[in-house]
Amino acid sequence: MSGSRTESSEADPAFQRLLRDVERDLGFRTSSYNDAYLRRRVEARMRRRGVEGYEAYGRLLDDEADEREALLDALSVNVTSFFRNPEVWAVVREVLREVDGRVRIWSAASSDGREAYSMAMLAFLDPAIDERRVDIVGTDIDRGILRRAREGRYRRSGTDDPVEQLTAVDGATEYVTVTDDAVVVDDRVRDLVTFRRHDLTDGEPAGEFDLVVCRNLFIYIEERAKARMVSTLLAGLAPGGHLVVGLTETLPPDCRDAFEAVDRRRRVYRQRG
Ligand SMILES: C[S@@+](CC[C@H](N)C(=O)[O-])C[C@H]1O[C@@H](n2cnc3c(N)ncnc32)[C@H](O)[C@@H]1O
User: CheR-type methyltransferase domain spans which residues (predicted)?
Assistant: First the structure.
C-alpha cells in the first residue's frame, strides 16, 4: 500500500487491509483514490449486502465473483452528460477554432462518451471548425462504460434526459435521433470518436493531443496520484496544447508552472511553450 493514505485510515487497519486486497485481487488501484471516496463506496456496498465490518466484507469478496464485480462498478462513478457545464463549452469552441491542421482531442475519463460526442458535435456545428480534421479519443478505466460509449445510445429518464442536455447548445439535437425512451448519436458524429481503455494512473498518455479534457475525476483522487495523472495528461499535450479540468478541480501546485490559465474560472489552461 502506498504511504499516501491519510492518518484516519492508517488508524483503521481493517480498512487498509481491505483496500490492499482490492488493489491486489481486483486490479483497482485503491491507493490513487481519496479515503472519503473509497469509504463511501465500500460502505454503500456493505449496507446493500447487510454486512458489518470490513473483514466480513473482505470474506464476501473472496467468496462471490458477483460482489467483486458490483464493488468495481461502485468504485467507478460514471455520472456525466452532454455539454456538462455549458459555460465551459464556449471556451472549448474557441480553443478548437485556433488549432491549425489536424485537431487531436483526448477526452480522458470519458465515462459513457457524452463528453467526447459533445466535442464532435461542436466540430460539426461550428463553421470555423472543420470536422474532417478532427479526431477524438475517449478513454476510461471502466470497460463496461466504454461499451456503452461505443454504442452511443442513451436512455432518457426524469433525472437524466440527454435531450434536455443537448438543448444547451443550439443545433446539437440535429446530430441525434430521439425516440420516446432514448437518444442515439448519429454515425457521422460517432465516426469522429474512438474509445479505448486507459488507466490514468499508469503514466503513459493515450497519444499526442492539441486538447485534453479531463473533468470530474480528480475530485475522487488522492493528491499525489492526482499530480501523477496531471503529468500523464501533460505528457499527452502537443506544445502549446490546452488542458481542461472540472469546474471544481484545481491543478496540483507542482504542475502549475507547466501551464498558463486561458480562463481560470472555467479551468482552461495552455501548456507553456
Ligand atoms: C464522473 S466521470 C467523469 C466523466 C466526464 N469526464 C464528465 O466530466 O462528465 C469519472 C470517470 O472517471 C473514470 N475513471 C476513474 N478512475 C480512472 C482512471 N484511473 N483512469 C481513467 N479513468 C478513470 C470512471 O470510470 C468514470 O467514468
Answer: 3-272
